[in-house]
Amino acid sequence: MTEGNDITRREAIARTALLLGGTVAAAHLAGVESPAWAAAAGPSWRTRTLSSPQSELVATIAEHIIPATDTPGARAAGVDKFVDVILTDYYKAPERDRFLAGLADVDARSQKANGKTFLASTPAQQLALLHAMDAESYPPERVLAKAEPLNTERAKMRDSLVRQSSTSTTISDPTRASADAGANETARRELEQGWFFRRMKELTLLGYYTSNAGAMTELKVNPMGVYRADIPYRSVGHSWA
Amino acid sequence: MTGPQQMEYDAIVIGSGITGGWAAKELTEKGLRTLMIERGRELVHRRDYTMEHKPTWDMPLRNARLDPTKQGAEEYQIQSRTGQFRESTKQHFAKDTTHAYEEVKPFTWIQGDQVGGKSLIWGRQVYRWSDLDFEANLKDGIAVDWPIRYKDIAPWYSYVEKHVGVSGERLGLPQLPDGEFLPPMPMNAGEKHVKAGIQRKFKDRHMTIGRVAILTADHKGRAACHYCGPCERGCSTGSYFSTQASTLPPAMATGRLTVLPDSIVHSLEYDPKTNRVSAVNVIDTKTKAQRAYKAKIVFVCASTLGSTRILLNSKSSTFPNGIANSSGVLGHNLMDHHFRAGASGRIEGLTDHYYQGNRPNGIYIVRFRNLGDAASKRTDFLRGFGYQGAASREGWGRGASAPGMGVELKRRLHDAGGWLMSMTGFGECLPRHENVVTLSDKTDDYGIPILRIDCAWGPNELAMRKDMKQSAMEMLEAAGLKNVVGSDDYKEGGLGAEPGLGIHEMGTARMGRDPKTSVLNGWGQAHDVPNLFVTDGSMMTSSSCVNPSITYMALTARAVDHAVSEMKKRNI
Fold first, then answer.
1. What is d(CA A21, CA A27) in angstroms, rounded to the nearest whole number?
2. Residue B485 in contact with partner chain A when CB distance is under 8 A
3. Is residue A39 part of a domain?
4. Cβ–Cβ of A233/B351 closer than 8 Å?
5. Which residue from B55, B416, B422 is facing A174, i.e. has the nearest CB?
6. Is B327 exposed, middle or buried (0-12, 13-18, 19+ CB in 10 A)?
7. CA 20 to 30 Å from B496, out of A33, B133, B287, B415?
8. CA of A38: which chain B residue's CA is closest?
């Protein structure tokens, strides 16, 4: 984060504090720990769908996708806990079961490749397996454009994950093509294959970049206070969360 | 807000949304002791905006969209069809389990269930209608003529705009008259780029920033917008128009308003001897106790379909098919704006440009079809459409749609992505007799018949949608965008762009000059029953293509002025 942005943020905080009396705005902008987050991070928190090994598996894969660097990674951001909440309170049974089956398949593939569970494998072995899955999960653009299931899924995810504009307009996904009834079976199978890993990656990004760590330490929430429609990118220097 | 101490008032207003709030403000300011009846719960400004400014990480599902395929929408299977229905806004929508209706063809009825109604969650876009709209039915020979013209409503637009606080840019265009504007919000770099591209190629197409009921300067004791973004969670600074922020405070300040929440109107009582509404029959939604309130005049502002339901259910020997329905057109000619046909694309470059703050507004492209001259004339459809849209830079979400992981991915997502521009048309819908709401044989928890809605787009709307998509694509291509993709979410017999989803439903108790073919006169007053006024979307004779709420507000204020003047003359 640049110094310029620091000043911008301080201005924004000051202005908003004037308007709103400070506490809410300060919590929003300065990343004060929130009650829900404190509860999730506290010692009494328990998973409700994932077993301990499954939860550890999710945390490990998520950390490979978004590792700790000079800022926290997915594990520190509690992505495993977030995934447990989504599986318990958001997905209906078929989607939840499909995700859990995907986790089991990671171990099955690890056994086949390395003779060990994923968690018992070395970090290098884990990474090799995940890179292979990542490559399989994103077939060439030609296939993506033709296949309805993923595009529908992507459109939904975009709608669900990215709050675009606050106008009543729904911002649609420009990469979305109309459903092609003739999408061939091979393409469909390829997409079915990659479902778990794509979903795991989506949940990791969502869980990470909407967490306190992801949205306030790695990135910054687009602050309230003033609207500046056209400013040099370098004065911000990073994506808004 | 306290319960009523009495059963008789000068005026009763049914509904507390955009028009109910205006009716209450105007009536009380003109000295009438007024009762405002609301079926939903009390919702107090500031205190009850429970999700305002809540950080995403403080929401268990991180503000997920709740749709019927997920948990969390079990009681909201209809409301959750709109993208506005999310973890952070759920509390401002009615439960479909208690607000049921029959859907003959796909029709999405979005309902509020609180004091303030849908004024808390509306899109806030504000556009004046013009004589292009008010003369349209007459010129096309469709339905009936509007009994008013732009000159009748123009001063009332100014009157309500001055109170509301509308930001926007003056354009001097006849098809979209300018209003009383606060300074416009600015466009971002992507939008300016697209605007310039459109201007180069199409001299007759005007892109402007959305005209919006959001304050860009302090106004009447309400603070300028602080750009937190999601207005629909409620706004403690009152920076967007809602009943709570804008019309309720002055009405309450008169000391003449009583608000009665948790009270559903069953029907209006008609007295044939006086030819007046004699009472409003109300059921307490908590205790189911029944009461009848009396007043000299009644303003029905319960939303288009809510008001129509009340009128249809107010049966008497004089009006066996619903009060003030001697014409038989009550419930017919249901309209909405059809949208979700447009285009999006990728703006190359501009990577040294960004924005800060969350502007709760987008761009608007003014209608350019069928303006009355030869150049804009279309042979494939009548009327026209405008576009709403926005440009923004992609965020971290793009990481999920391409391969990559680890430090490389995290570093890549640290930077903002490329610019995207998207726009969707909002098209005018013709009034058609066969698009109708009637009372069902089924009743709700209070014994009131529910509505049966039978509505679909017609050939004119479907023909217009092709142009909405095509013209959007050609404008984005003219601006040099890449990967331009057109879209049309309409699916015949299915969901995606079905009527109702535009949340601009209107037309079921239309105004007209002839009591034989319309329910209301040009003042929103029932032809048949002089002390009955209906001033929400149900009064509209045609739909225009622009967002309707400011027109509802202006017509409501005008109707109250007329009603009170008639009372003084002892005509009511």
1. 12
2. yes
3. no
4. yes
5. B422
6. buried
7. B133
8. B58
Give chain A positions within 8 Å (CB) of B190.
none
Is A162 inside any structural domain?
yes
Chain B hits for A162, CB-CB cut-off 8 Å, are 395, 397
- Answer yes or no: is B230 within a domain: no
| A235 shares a domain with A204 | no
**Is B302 inside a domain boundary?**
yes
Alpha carbon distance B443, A148 (integer Å): 41
For residue B62, give its domain range.
1-165+241-336+506-572
Q: Is A232 helix (H, G, I), strand (E, B) or coil?
A: strand
Which residue from A minimizes the CA distance to B228?
Answer: A224
Per 3-state DSSP, what percentage of chain A is helix, strand, and coil (rounded to 5)? 60, 5, 35
What is the pTM (predicted TM-score) of this model?
Answer: 0.91
Of the candidates A156, A169, A165, A148, which has an alpha carbon nearest to the alpha carbon of residue B342?
A169
pLDDT digits (tens, 9 = 90+) for A69-89: 999 999 999 999 999 999 999
A231: nearest CB among B231, B356, B483: B356
| pLDDT tens sequence across B373-428 | 999 999 999 999 999 999 999 999 999 999 999 999 999 999 999 999 999 999 99
- How far is B8 from chain A, CA to nearest CA, in Å? 40
Residues from chain B contacting residue A135 (CB–CB below 8 Å): 403
B549/chain A closest Cα distance in angstroms: 14
- A146 domain-assigned: yes
**What CATH code is carried by the domain that includes residue B132?**
3.50.50.60
Domains contained in chain B, number = 1
Q: What residues of chain B, 424 to 463, have a C-beta less than 8 Å from chain A?
A: 424
Do A147 and A195 lie in one domain? The reply is yes
Q: Quick one: which H or E segment has residue B389?
A: strand B385-393
- Cα nearest neighbour of B51 on chain A: A24
- Count of Cβ atoms closer than 10 Å to residue A131 Cβ: 15
Do B486 and B431 meet the contact criterion of CB atoms below 8 Å apart?
A: no
Q: How far is A223 from chain B (nearest CA, A)?
A: 5
Q: Does A15 map to a domain?
A: yes
CA distance B65 to B52: 17
Chain B nearest CA to A47, separation (Å): 13
pLDDT at A29 over 60: no
